[in-house]
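Hi everyone, sorry if this is the wrong subforum. Our group has a chain we'd like a structural model of before ordering constructs, and none of us has done structure prediction before. Sequence below.
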Amino acid sequence: MKNKIPWIVGGVLVVALAIGAITLGQGPEKPKSVGELPESARALVVPANEKHTVVIPPCNTPVEQTTADAEQGKPTPGATTFELNAGEDVRTVMVPHCQPGTGAVNTAGNIPSSAFVVDNAPAANETDGAFESDGVIAKSQLVLQQGGDGTTVVVPPCGKVTKGEDAVLQAEGGSKLVVGARC
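Answer:
Right subforum, don't worry. Here is the predicted structure as tokens:
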């Protein structure tokens, strides 16, 4: 009986050390690629050949009202409006999605619309087709054609995750106004 106890204790220690080695040997979990993370915005790609005005309507509002206001040069309450000056490269604007149940782009429900311009934005990741900046991920993009007539761009925020669809925007009928499609 005395001879079996050291063998049992030794066997238990070997099994415990083996389990520990296997667990530690797996290492940390690999970070997900941008394409695997959920989309939280859509991107607007604007050429820098001339000055452009960008208008983001408030969440859960008819885009037609913001479009009519933009055509008349009037501000829309709750809309985010800014100008992109002419420059040398393209500009990428991230437009955050509206959060469900809030009518806003943040969970607190107090920011009706927003956008931010990404400095030196790389092209969409070629392997998964997504833009990422400071944790904001866009899998769909609206691209304003260079040399087109549109100088004012209205981009409604998405209220849902999209399927990564891209679209080329252009003004119609000599208009200076371009309106991005709803999601």
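For your construct planning: The mean pLDDT is 82. Residues 12 and 34 are 44 Å apart (CA to CA).
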